[in-house]
Amino acid sequence: MRGDTTRRIAAPLALAVLLALGREAAATTYSWSCNDGSWEQAECWTPAGVPTSADTASLSTVGGSVTVLRITDATGEAQASEVHVTQWPRSPDAAPRLEISGGRLTASKEFVGSVVGSDFKGRTGQIRQTGGVNWTDYLYLSGVAGVGEEPPLAYSLSGSGYLHASGISVGGSSYYNRAAFLQEGGVVDAGGVGLHNGSTYTLTGGTLRSSRWETINEGLFLQAGGEHQIAERLDLSFSSGEYRLEGGSLEVPFIDVGTRYSKFTFAGGRLSANVVRTPASWLPLVNQGGTLAPGGAPGATGRTTIVHGYTVDDPRATLEIDIAGPAAESGYDQVDVWWGDATLGGILEVALADYVPEVGDSFDILKVTNGRLNGTFDETHFPVVQGISFAIDYLGDRVRLTAVAVPEPTALLLTATPLFGLAAWRHRRHG
Fold this sequence. Notes:
Oligomer: single chain
Strand content: over 45%
Shape: elongated
């Protein structure tokens, strides 16, 4: 009797489990069918309903008109296994657009202007994020652009938007599948970022953090502002990629410019790197108006090793040195140039970080190994703290600062000038 009862209970339970597993395995592809609407509108999907974490959500142009799918705070959380924002043939004026202004989108993979696998035709589409959260494992961006055409904008991020992706790939399988990523604000946390086949990433504001690496393969990364932090390396060792730093800050342990066709253009902004390696001594790192800051954040100290030479080519170019103790790297910033010349110019900016040296203490802030030291700084800006400042010497293979006592009348004059805030002893070299 008890065994029969157990069997009567177990059989429906097992059937229910099997049906549930079947429902989980049967993923559905939902196609967007409204010209403008929100993710949670079941009537705008075909079949009617709302995609779940097991489903594919597909957005293409409806009726040849601009088609917009919106995710807002009212949406809450939108989910899908895959999201496709893509159209063929291309129609730049009516490309489908996913707009995220609030809420949260969670998807395993997102494809914009591309499909799974090789797509040599290329397609168009765009994600425009001004707020909310977009959380995906992989983001693939592609587009269609002929010879001489700018790559189409596939993703734009601004405002308070937050994008998390284990990997971001910008650019399709050929030169004609180029795409563009524009970040004007917000935050991107990425495992890795890759630019391919002439694609671009433009950073003008906000924060981009890569927890592993970034690879630029025949693409352009233009940084005109914002904060860019790379945990492992910036790899320019493939083909003809370029990173152009014009503004903002870039922090990275290792920059590898592996070929003579690749470029790291240091035209502005603030660079903090442990190692910068260019391909040859006749292709040195050239500072065209930026700030080289070995220690990273102001007050922190460290060493920047530059392999194959360093040249200053603009009077605005600045070397920023923090001194917080007597030992190189751990106590004060140092630049170490290997296998190439160091040609100086521009501005030397020195700051003391909660530390006052004694008269006679010396600090070798720049050294050259297997190369020559050429030129001098055009301007040197030294702090004056407790009657102590610095003298500078160019010693053939190094630049040395030595702590000196400031003449009393000079110290009194400087500390009595409130317009300049912290007193500084500025020495300008002419010639």
